[in-house]
Amino acid sequence: MKLSSDTLAVLKNFASINSNIVFRGGPTVKTMSEAKNILASATLAEDFPIEFGIYDLNEFLGVVSMFDSPELDFSDIGGGHVQIVEGGRSVQYFFSDPEILTSPTKDIQMPAAEVSFVLSDNDLNAMRRAASTMSVSDVVVESEGSGDLQARVTDTSDSTSNSFSVKLNPTRMPDGTPFRFVYNVANFKLMGGTDYNVEVSSKLISHLKGSNNIEYWVALEKSSTFGN
């Protein structure tokens, strides 16, 4: 098996969420942050033949990157390792016990969403740049109930904080109900290169689905409000 560049990009993104990962076999891989406030899932081009755990995903990707186009050989099922091979060079990379790793064991049941919108890749990149430049910690998706929707990058703990705003394209909005959904910027660990269809529930959970077979469930902060 060879890992495509798209798969390597997904795994690099997943490593930013959690350094542990468990491959359950098949093309679907999932990860979850240690705080359990981010869950991500992706369907890859590759079909992994066995279940195995990786303790340090960044290290594993670094080992793979030592080769130009390596083959991953999982044939020694009882050996507890994968053989990473190219030409006359190889690495024997050992698995970790999935039981000791942080990994999602069941899917999130997304509650009914009151708000949905499209978050473009351009707007996502602009929000990230703004958060970094202004050193602020929050993304606030909000409406005064007028039908307009915006995302504001700011520091909600500081009433004089600088802020950067982006108008959003809503596909579902509650009639006349104001809301203020707050995210921690640190939880916006989304892959770039795709627009996201976003659904947000007042139960403090959101679902973001990209066009590249990747999706995230991200928890909102408890300071979020819905209604007066």
What does this protein structure show overall?
By secondary structure, the chain is of the alpha+beta class. The chain has two domains: 5-100, Proliferating Cell Nuclear Antigen (Box); 115-226, Box (Proliferating Cell Nuclear Antigen), CATH 3.70.10. 15% of the residues lie in helices and 39% in strands. The chain contains three helices and 17 strands. It has helices at 5-17, 57-64, 121-134, and strands spanning 21-23, 26-32, 38-48, 52-54, 71-73, 81-86, 89-94, 115-119, 138-143, 150-154, 164-167, 169-172, 179-184, 196-201, 205-210, 214-219, 225-226. Strands 2-3-16-15-14-8-12 form a seven-stranded antiparallel sheet. A five-stranded antiparallel sheet has the order 11-10-9-13-17. A three-stranded antiparallel sheet has the order 5-6-7, covered by helices on one side. The longest helix has 14 residues, at 121-134. It is elongated. The termini are far apart. The relative contact order is 0.16. The model has no long low-confidence stretch (mean pLDDT 95).
